[in-house]
């Protein structure tokens, strides 16, 4: 793993696990000192995180952890509740034993990440599971929209979610795959609706005050 990739993964993990809370400032000099790399290297990682909407970089203000509003969090989940269940008929048209096996592999990776308390990985794998389903349904315009919603959901879960937001409390993805294997369209649509509503209800919508973060302690070698 490259040094940039290692720094990226450490920072993403810290954001998702609330060690770097929403709104926290990310000064390049202090991060550079903590990781023992140049500010140029830190800047590359920050811009990568910004492309994925986990970080906001503003000219003359530097970088900070993105802070989705409570209204945005609800709107993103509501949008997913409206769209993803409706993709079920098209999804079933493209469903096969090979696709079932592919998605079961993803579901197992999610479970492994949850078991190992790798919350950042679990959130990313959950997003991937959902937007890969949307892609398989065949409508590329909707698939790209769902992909963006899933990225934004990842940040929302990092800001407002709990471990239950990505765990079995909101429904095991393998249950959904069992329903798809049975070809039960209405049950699959109902399951996905309930699944997304559970994720929405698991959010703790409250603002958290930024703490004085010791980057050296958090990331120092």
Automatic annotation (TrEMBL):
Q: Which ranges carry the HTH gntR-type domain? A: 1-68
Which organism was this protein described from?
Answer: Marinomonas rhizomae
Q: Which residues cross the membrane?
A: none
Protein's name in the database: GntR family transcriptional regulator
Q: Which Gene3D superfamilies match?
A: GntR ligand-binding domain-like, Winged helix-like DNA-binding domain superfamily/Winged helix DNA-binding domain
Q: Which regions form coiled coils?
A: none
Q: Annotated Gene Ontology MF terms?
A: DNA binding; DNA-binding transcription factor activity
User: Does the record carry Phosphoprotein as a key word?
Assistant: no
Q: Which CDD domains match?
A: WHTH_GntR
Which terms are listed as keywords in the entry? Answer: DNA-binding, Transcription, Transcription regulation
What lineage does the source organism belong to?
Bacteria, Pseudomonadati, Pseudomonadota, Gammaproteobacteria, Oceanospirillales
Superkingdom assignment: Bacteria
Q: Name one Pfam family in it.
A: GntR
